[in-house]
Amino acid sequence: MPSSCKEIRAALAQCLQESECVMVQRHTAADCLRSPLAETLPTKCQQLKRGFGECRRGMIDMRKRFRGNQPITFKSFEDTEKSGEGYQLYAGRSAFAGAVRKTDGNEPDPVDWRELENEKYRKQQQEEEQKKR
Fold this sequence. Notes:
- Helix content is 56%, strand content 0%.
- It has seven helices and no strands.
- Helix 1 packs antiparallel against helix 5 (43-60).
């Protein structure tokens, strides 16, 4: 297998080995990936399974033949999970990273652009009146 999917494959294997499906119920990892048991896997394992599938499909996708398959590294996936920032499991930057600002509820309302224009106009009028005097 090409190196573009090795890291996510290893992360999926580790996640399956640590899952309840393998550890407690004593199913094989292959059985846990199939339909009736796949829904009982933790969300992290389900995301890794989907990402691995997309990575495998990306290897034969003709639209990616020049740039190559670019899956996200699992280490950066873990870092974003710990920091709480948004992440995208496969290929590229998160679409939502940095879009949400944390607020405490005491922020001032943004000033309307019309109000800014009115203030500029009033200031000009005052300057003109002062020049006439």
